[in-house]
UniProtKB/TrEMBL annotation:
Keyword annotations from UniProtKB, A to Z: ATP-binding, Cell membrane, Glycoprotein, Kinase, Lectin, Membrane, Nucleotide-binding, Receptor, Serine/threonine-protein kinase, Signal, Transferase, Transmembrane, Transmembrane helix
Record-given protein name: non-specific serine/threonine protein kinase
Entry's localization field: Cell membrane; Membrane
Any GO CC annotation of this UniProt entry: plasma membrane
The enzyme's E.C. designation: 2.7.11.1
The keyword Magnesium appears for this protein: no
Topology relative to the membrane: Single-pass type I membrane protein
Taxonomic lineage: Eukaryota, Viridiplantae, Streptophyta, Embryophyta, Tracheophyta
Species this chain originates from: Panicum virgatum (Blackwell switchgrass)
Length: 690
């Protein structure tokens, strides 16, 4: 039976849940069989014809590679052994996890080794575990923000993680971790092995090297110990494991569970492969036949090691190798700087940067120059070689070249915007699969850091600065809405998109998203874009961004700056509460000024703070017709006109309730802000670029 005829059926089942259906179908075979049977072990040296349930992007290539992801963004993939296995049996009256061993050979290919995600997890989960709502991002397609860390998951995993995520307390961007019920590892170590041939010396391995690497995971049910070992392919299993951790899986695993792989790409073009896999209960995993393994594909300028293998070991090998290496270096050099340039770009000439300049400016996009990671990609600091201008380079991945022309035209027209409260876009560069946007560098970083991560070197912002920033952003937004030749809707106003220049003036950034509309024309309906907590309720219904949806986000933003709290508050009992509702509540109780950031210790101008809170509530009014225009907002802020009194009846309902009526609930509830930004942004990118 060919694998292609089996897989589609499994694929369907999987969309319902992990493998519960498969359990029902063949449960008879597994039930009650505690001893080692043929069903308790398997070995695949290559996956041609293998009986593996595939889901998401996973596929078996004609050469027998299990391809989890193929370099497309935001993919997730699962490959699961279809038969559930008995992982626990009664011992001394309690259910105790049995010993098991598994081994696999994997390969991860990344076009950019510095920005690579998100890795592969080998996991054991109950048959009823639901993978459909797992996120295709740093959650590696295994959990989502809700299920991560939930004891009810009954999840065990070994992660090969190629990206450092602080929320999971990852030690680095190239580590192996033992996971229980989520991606915060019980223990982890940088990838590598203790070399028996070198007297046990530790040698680093790069997970995303594009080289086949073998991993062994052994659980000892008697000693309650998990060992994880890895080594380059063709090397015997090192005697000292990379990780050796005491952990009793009896409390984690269910009696019957499924074993498989999960992977996800998030915002990276990485490819994840498994070449071979074996498993056994109560005994060592059967040996994988290395000679039968399929070959990993190659891409990018990464041929050096392979070349060495092909060259015959003769006396001239050294010479040939040297010539080869030089050739490869030359090719690499060329590849390194290749960019896409087409005829239509001539008119945009002055805005075009050469990749070589950007590469040199950022010291080769070194991690040390990484300013931050946003929904679209990474942002690096750089200094232009000749002018010594400081820049921030945003690397945006994209797959297709259709629509790029319109996008570039937009970028260039955005580049013509000049206002002291906007981050100036200096230009762009294009490469295969990648767009680079060049902005002025803002030495004081983004406002959210000053609001939330204040420490000794980033002191808490005093009220005068906050008020100045609020006025500045209002002026910037007014310019976009009313003072340029076209109406520009920003669509993603939030604290992390407000950057502070050297004078601590606020500048609105991230115009990659702004779409241009001619004055008076009806804005087209497009996908919802923006970030949860800042989205006006009507967006859930119409998906139509207007200047008033920007005003809503601006209202939330100024409340955030005044209160020093995120738009969605976590209450002490773990519930979520919209900041707007919390401020409205205080307004009803007549204690509006209690909402002002307590870290200011009362050192603020009460009149100004009261004014800003009031404007914040007016702007973030659930009914768009009740919101002021930016022109009016500017007048209120400058004291040229008093703001209207807040209307108690209209303001007197829970915004969230209204949002739910507008079909917003699934939206608010199912995405943490970063993920929502990413999904919605990728929709827009999809529209603009693909
Ligand atoms: N021009 C700049 N100067 C200095 N730092 C910058 C600049 N642009 C971005 N950064 C830094 O890079 C980080 C990431 O920026 P980016 O705009 O990609 O993401 P974000 O605003 O956090 O999220 P999103 O992509 O959802 O808008 C910012 O938080 C900021 O610290
Ligand atoms: C990758 O897989 C997706 C489906 O998951 C497919 O749409 C896409 O065309 C594939 N891309 C390549 C380069 O094979
Ligand atoms: C079972 O219990 C006995 C006595 O309590 C103990 O000696 C033995 O080690 C236990 N066996 C296991 C496998 O836990
Ligand atoms: C291995 O990698 C770690 C972290 O990247 C580094 O600190 C260490 O020096 C490396 N060791 C060797 C032997 O290369
Ligand atoms: C996470 O997944 C569970 C099911 O596995 C689902 O009930 C929940 O809504 C999801 N959470 C998010 C934030 O998507």
């Amino acid at each position: 039976m060919s694998s292609s005829s089996v897989l589609p059926i499994h694929k369907k089942l999987l969309s319902i849940s992990l493998c519960v259906c498969v359990i029902l179908a063949i449960g008879v075979k597994v039930d009650g069989s505690a001893g080692t049977t043929a069903a308790d072990q398997f070995v695949y040296s290559g996956f041609s014809g293998a009986d593996v349930t595939l889901d998401g992007a996973a596929a078996v290539t004609p050469s027998g590679l299990l391809e989890l992801t193929n370099g497309t963004l935001r993919q997730k993939a699962h490959a699961i052994h279809p038969a559930p296995l008995r992982f626990r049996e009664p011992r001394n009256g309690t259910a105790s996890a049995r010993s098991f061993s598994t081994s696999f050979v994997f390969g991860i290919l990344c076009p950019d080794p510095d920005a690579c995600g998100h890795g592969i997890v080998l996991f054991v989960a109950p048959g009823s575990y639901d993978l459909s709502a797992a996120f295709p991002s740093q959650y590696i397609g295994l959990v989502n923000a809700t299920t991560n860390g939930d004891k009810g998951d009954h999840l065990f995993g070994v992660e090969l993680d190629t990206d450092q995520n602080n929320e999971f307390r990852d030690i680095d961007g190239n580590h192996v971790g033992i996971d229980v019920d989520g991606l915060v590892s019980v223990s982890s170590a940088s990838a590598g092995y203790y070399d028996d041939r070198g007297g046990g010396v530790f040698r680093n391995l790069t997970l995303a090297s594009g080289e086949a690497t073998q991993v062994w995971v052994d659980y000892d049910g008697d000693r309650k110990q998990i060992d994880v070992t890895m080594a380059p392919l063709k090397m015997a299993k090192p005697s000292r494991p990379l990780l050796s951790t005491a952990y009793d899986l009896s409390t984690v695993l269910t009696d019957v569970a499924c074993v498989g792989f999960s992977s996800a790409t998030g915002s990276f073009n990485s490819r994840h492969y498994v070449l071979g896999w074996s498993f056994a209960m109560d005994g060592p995993a059967p040996a994988i036949d290395i000679s039968k393994l399929p070959r990993l594909p190659r891409f990018g300028p990464k041929h050096r090691a392979k070349l060495a293998e092909i060259v015959p070991p003769v006396a001239t090998a050294g010479f040939i190798l040297a010539v080869g290496a030089i050739a490869v270096l030359l090719v690499r050099r060329r590849l390194r700087y290749t960019e896409l340039r087409e005829d239509w770009e001539v008119e945009f000439g002055p805005h075009r940067f050469s990749y070589k300049d950007l590469f040199n400016a950022t010291e080769g996009f070194r991690n040390k120059n990484l300013l931050g990671v946003g929904g679209f990609g990474r942002v690096y600091k750089g200094v232009l070689p000749v002018s010594k201008t400081e820049i921030a380079v945003k690397k945006v991945s994209h797959d297709s070249k259709q629509g790029v022309k319109e996008f570039i035209a937009e970028v260039v027209s955005i580049g013509r915007l000049q206002h002291r409260n906007l981050v100036h876009l200096l230009g762009y560069c294009r490469r295969k699969g990648e767009l680079l946007l060049v902005y002025e560098y803002m030495s004081n970083g983004s406002l959210d850091k000053h609001l939330y991560d204040a420490s000794d070197d980033v002191p808490i912002l005093d009220w005068d600065k906050r008020f100045m920033i609020i006025k500045g952003i209002a002026a910037g937004l007014l310019y976009l809405h009313e003072e340029w030749e076209k109406v520009i809707i920003h669509r993603d106003i939030k604290a992390s998109n407000v950057l502070l220049d050297k004078d601590m003036d606020g500048r609105l950034g991230d115009f990659g998203l702004a779409r241009l509309y001619d004055h008076g024309a009806n804005p087209h309906t497009t996908h919802v874009v923006g970030t949860i907590g800042y989205l006006a309720p009507e967006l859930g219904r119409t998906s139509k961004a207007t200047p008033l949806t920007d005003v809503f986000a601006f209202g939330v933003f100024i409340l955030e700056v005044t209160c020093g709290q995120r738009p969605i508050k976590q209450t002490s009992n773990g519930n979520q509460l919209l900041l707007v509702d919390w401020v409205v509540d205080h307004w009803h109780k007549g204690s509006l000024t209690d909402t002002v950031d307590a870290r200011l210790h009362g050192r603020y101008n009460i009149g100004e703070a009261y004014l800003v809170l009031k404007i914040g509530l007016l702007c973030s009014h659930p009914l768009s017709s009740m919101r002021p225009s930016m022109h009016q907002v500017m007048k209120y802020l400058n004291g040229d006109m008093p703001p209207p009194e807040l209307n108690p009846t209209l303001q007197n309902f829970e915004t969230l309730a209204l949002m739910q009526n507008e079909g917003f609930d699934s939206y608010i509830m199912s995405y943490p802000s970063s993920v929502a930004t990413m999904t919605t942004m990728s929709n827009v990118l999809g529209e603009v670029i693909t």
